[in-house]
Write a structure and sequence with these properties.
By secondary structure, the protein is mainly α. It contains 15 helices and no strands. The chain starts with a helix and ends in a 6-residue tail after the last helix. Its main location: membrane. This is Sterol desaturase/sphingolipid hydroxylase (Fatty acid hydroxylase superfamily).
């Protein structure tokens, strides 16, 4: 019975149905008029979209179990680990840093605008360094390892990435005056949208979402972010508002003439849980242990992936710039010559 109860709890938890079931059992439907009730109603949307994505793939005979297997195994592994490790990073940062805030905002619509802009900045910072600092890339690479895009990719994360992300984002928001209650509300919205933008071509083929592509960060933008094409490397770090990508010049539109290739650039086995979860750590450990001195070993850890002590760097920035230069040369050579 304990196993059946555990499976029941896991299934209702995964599909976000726990709160709704308790509400029906208690008969207290008044909770639907509260923020908690709204969260309960929206909770099942992403898991149900994932189920729809799988069923649609089965119906059109395009379902491939390998596209969902690894994210599912990572999810199961993380659930197992989380039973032994619990880090209340958000609460810790709020308690530690709130007294140092430059000012204190309130839970109002105009502070919501400010708070969301600050939140996007904090998300950009966490996400940017997750790609630009190799030890942090080791935490983040598990999320980029899948070689396809679908909603199951939401569950492919190294278990320590969430605490790292929460510490960075919460610290920045609290120090810049975002009200804690407002911060939790923003996290809820951002979590929902951040999950939705992983939706695959199987459900939404054109991820640009029409006019929204000019206003928000859409599934199209996030597909670009997950691509290993040289042009797309290390772009579109924001989550809902792409304002900071445009400010820091990391914004990149999806090109219709460039088919997206998902995954990470190193040679890896996408069907190996060990390689997906620990592969980048193994590669980093090999470089550090073979380094000629302590300084070089440290630089391997804090410099971007692809950095080399010999100067023969193969970082995402260099790879992307080389592609852009070559692409421009091709366009120039193919441009028609006009007679004077």
């Amino acid at each position: 019975m304990n196993i059946i109860h555990l499976l029941y709890e896991e299934l209702t938890g995964f599909f976000g149905l726990g709160g709704l079931i308790k509400m029906v059992q208690s008969g207290n439907y008044g909770v639907l008029s509260t923020l908690e009730g709204i969260q309960m109603l929206m909770g099942p949307i992403i898991p149900l979209l994932l189920l729809l994505e799988i069923l649609r793939g089965l119906f059109y005979k395009r379902f491939k179990i390998d596209e969902y297997k690894m994210p599912f195994l990572v999810f199961v592994l993380n659930r197992f680990i989380s039973r032994f490790i619990s880090i209340a990073a958000v609460a810790f940062c709020i308690g530690l840093l709130e007294k140092w805030a430059i000012f204190h905002s309130t839970f109002t619509w105009y502070w919501l605008i400010y708070g969301y802009i600050v939140w996007e900045l904090s998300h950009f910072v966490y996400h940017y360094f997750g790609h630009k600092v190799r030890i942090l890339w080791c935490l983040h690479s598990t999320h980029h390892a899948p070689q396809q895009m679908n909603l199951s990719v939401n569950f492919a994360h190294f278990f320590l990435e969430a605490p790292y992300a929460d510490v960075v984002r919460t610290s920045i928001c609290i120090l810049l005056g975002v009200n804690p209650a407002l911060l939790f509300f923003i996290m809820f919205i951002d979590g929902f949208w951040g999950s939705f933008i992983h939706i695959g071509e199987n459900v939404i083929k054109d991820g640009r979402l029409g006019f929204l592509n000019k206003i928000l960060l859409t599934p199209s933008h996030h597909r670009v972010h997950h691509a290993k094409n040289p042009l797309y490397l290390d772009t579109n770090f924001c989550n809902l508002l792409n304002i900071w990508d445009k400010v820091f010049k990391t914004y990149q539109e999806e090109r219709t003439d460039l088919k997206i290739e998902y995954g990470i650039t190193r040679e890896m086995n996408p069907n190996s849980l060990w390689d997906v979860y620990f592969g980048e750590f193994v590669c980093l450990a090999k470089d550090v242990t073979s380094a000629p001195n302590f300084k070089t070993g440290l630089l391997y850890m804090i410099m971007p992936p692809g950095w080399s002590p010999t100067g023969d760097h193969k970082t995402a920035k260099i790879t992307r710039e080389s592609f852009i230069t070559h692409d421009q040369e091709i366009k120039t050579s193919e441009a028609p010559v006009t007679a004077n």
